[in-house]
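Ligand-bound model needed. 2-acetamido-2-deoxy-beta-D-glucopyranose.
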Amino acid sequence: MQTRVMSLEEGKDPSPVIRTRVLPVRLLLKLFMFLILCALFSFISLSTFKRYGFDGMVGVVKPSYQPCIGESSGLDRWIRPPSNLMHTMSDEELFWRATLVPRIRKYPFNRTPKIAFMFLTKGPLPLAPLWERFFKGHEGRYSIYIHSLPSYDEEFPPTSVFYRRNIPSQLTQWGTMSLCDAERRLLANALLDISNERFILLSESCIPLYKFNFIQNYITNSKYSFIGAFDDVGPFGRGRYDENMAPEVNITEWRKGSQWFEINRRLAINIVEDTIFYPKFEAFCKPNCYVDEHYFPTMLTIRAANLLANRSITLVDWSRGGSHPATFGKGDVTVDFLKKIREKTTCTYNGRNTTVCYLFARKFAPSTLEPLLEVAPKVFDF
Ligand SMILES: *[C@@H]1O[C@H](CO)[C@@H](O)[C@H](O)[C@H]1NC(C)=O
Ligand SMILES: *[C@@H]1O[C@H](CO)[C@@H](O)[C@H](O)[C@H]1NC(C)=O
Ligand SMILES: *[C@@H]1O[C@H](CO)[C@@H](O)[C@H](O)[C@H]1NC(C)=O
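Prediction:
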């Protein structure tokens, strides 16, 4: 070590070595001692640096910059979810940030994949007490995000799972691109938490039809993501396609489906990063082309058809006719009714036939809360 340091010193500035020849022996000795001291000091500081890292070094000279409480110089700061959802990023900034993707597949830490429950609402969540029960005991396996009207102030107590889960929101209008914007905003905010692996879009009138563990197993063991995407050749399907969307969107790729999706992280990134299909849909899919029924199903079919189940896991009752789905009221909610809607149809799950097709249902009026809480332990087991 010593010799290496000395030779380094010499290499840096060879002139003193030449001069030493004419210097007296005592001075030479002093110089030698000084060099040894230098070497010793370098050695000590180097090993301190190695042992305690940069933090140990700056501990001597207090920096004027004080890091935020809890900010570490380790991996932590990159994998911890944001503590405050109310950031000041614009959509453009947020989408850019949300689509930063690690290139190495294997996570160098213990990652518990979480499900992001994203509530697209007008304001209050009248069925919140039912959801509170649903989430109870499953902390660390889910995250919640709420997009409401910007004017709406949340009212949840700190003990609630919904407390401070609102994201920066903007006005939305049904049937327009602003609705897709809100959904992309929810996805982007949820993507900021690297542990979120599955993303479910819900509304304030949605209820879960099974307990948390069942839903988690169903979703995480599925080879496919659940988004409705079908090729409707009629006037309300292909009839809404505009030739101007080619060549980005071909009529054979045009899909329709309800907006209540469940998608994995890869598809969520596909949606948030999209700059190719967005302008086409924005310009050429206006009422009576309802963009929220076509944009995601079509672009995901083009991007990743093999990852889609092409069906939704959210039950909507259209049987009563009209342009809006039926709303279930207080009188509808019974044990029988809920058991029946759970197994209404058959569908395929990982290639097999099943009667478990729907994990969520809508639309439930606020008045259904009381009977729902009453029958939940009997039907849903929560
Ligand atoms: C649309 O796709 C079909 C089959 O994939 C193809 O035959 C047709 O030429 C395409 N049309 C356009 C306008 O690209
Ligand atoms: C969903 O539809 C696409 C075509 O749009 C198809 O390629 C894919 O295999 C379908 N998914 C399933 C699970 O059948
Ligand atoms: C699944 O259901 C379809 C019709 O719904 C039927 O044709 C098919 O034979 C069933 N497959 C199995 C494996 O039971």
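The pocket of 2-acetamido-2-deoxy-beta-D-glucopyranose (ligand 3) is lined by residues 346, 353 (CB under 6 Å).
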